[in-house]
Amino acid sequence: MGEEKIKPRQLRISYFCPMTNQAADLKDIASYAKKYGYVFPSSEIYDGLSAVYDYGQNGVALKDNIKRYWWKAMVQLNGDIEGLDAAIFMHPTTWKASGHVDAFNELLIDNRDTQRRYRADWLIENYIAELNAKIGKARDCERADTQLKGCIEQRDRVAERMIAALEKDDLEALRRLITDLGIADPISGSKNWTDVRRFNLMFATQLSASADSSPDLYLRPETAQGAFVNFLNVQKTARQKLPFGIAQIGKAFRNEIVARQFIFRMREFEQMELQYFVRPGEALKYYEEWREKRMRWHLSLGLGPAHYRFRDHDKLAHYADAASDIEFRFPFGFKELEGIHARTDFDLRNHQKYANKKLQFFDPVSNQRHVPHVVETSVGLDRLFLAVFSVALQEETLADGSTRTVLRLPHILAPIQAAILPLVKKDGLPEIARSLFGDLKYDFNVTLDDKDTIGRRYRRQDAVGTPYCITIDHDTRQDQSATLRNRDTMEQERVPLTRIPSLLAERISMKAQLRKL
Ligand code: GAP
Fold first, then answer.
1. pTM
2. How far is 241 from 364, CA to CA, in rounded Å?
3. Which one of 72, 244, 309, 367 is most buried, by most CB atoms within 10 A?
4. Helix or strand holding residue 368 (H, E)
5. How far is the CA of 210 from the centre of ligand 1 (A)?
């Protein structure tokens, strides 16, 4: 155990995945996640299924802890928020009313030579990003004004043409823009493009056994609609008044076209969503409140404020009054982690229309009935997993020049909270370890490990993210104490066996974190 006594200030911490080396970063993270039982490619023995992943023994525990932390913060601590678990399948008219059948589309273009498929707007956005990079460089070098001006004008013209085409839904104009700009397939350089086509992202399936009947069901692309169609059920049975919310965690499915970013963009994923129903006219006030609350919740995980930023949408969806994203600095740059939207009364009003049923709240104060407006917060569980995991994964150089890989997961989220390590497999130490394991297992996720040297066992637990190791040694028999080793500082302290449950409870306490929110 001597080699472990290194003070925190002696550590030089470097990110295992420096932000610069993007492609390799995600690959490293994915292979690490697989090696340590967090995430496996789906049906890997058949070469996998693109953008679909399975969570292994540690992954499922990490995911479960994230869900619990969210659920406690949103439902358990708030008397005005109720939980819901709506079915994945919903009446097909739901998706007509929500606008997903008509408008949940990507605009795609294929390259005839390579058979590769791209989002047409992304190809143009990439072109604009290249112009922006040129503009930035020209500014840095204080290059001739005319060159800089030319670039800026060209960028603005391209952006204007793209926006006009998107607003008019003019797919031919979008294709013309791609060909006029000479945009080539980024892989092969070919410019042999097809027309731009619309592609709905929902997965369709059938309710009846008959294979030739037309698709009549969809796998839900968001959990939100379950809350809208159950609005009155929950409001009445929970005797809630406005404002109140419905929170839900569940699977969603999208036939993503560009899905090459590990668990960032998946075809089957989980969302944690809140629909908060408010009086008309009060939505913007609650929108601001939820923006702040949700950012506070993210910051409470302790990954560091530099990883987060807000991005307000300038172009709002047809149903939104206001919208912003909480973006996270993933290894490939800042990207959306959570969306916060003031959705007006769009969804409830449309469900009223399509179902021909009233979805209104009777306000005893004003003696009026109205369709509530909705503030939504929607975070992807898998994206949050990736955010936490990518920051936690670190390689450290120790004072003696050796390195260790450590997964510094927030303690409350770690799959295993403590590992119990009998120093040797004899002299009564395994029996003490088993007895401690029996005491702790009802309140904590603990593991017993008696294989290999103690140093190797510490490294194994560091690598998987276990915040504490409890070593049972020969002195334990005399003093009924054990060594508690901290994953992050590697400091060790001697503690009585009877104190261990309360010490762990103090140090791995969701309650303490939640109280700070
Ligand atoms: N009900 C609103 C809604 O679904 P969204 O912005 O489309 O809004 C919300 O999705 C969140 O769901 C995103 O911020 C993201 O975290 C997550 N998400 C969306 N598509 C995803 C995908 N293909 N894979 C993983 N997470 C996804």
1. 0.88
2. 9
3. 244
4. strand 368-370
5. 33
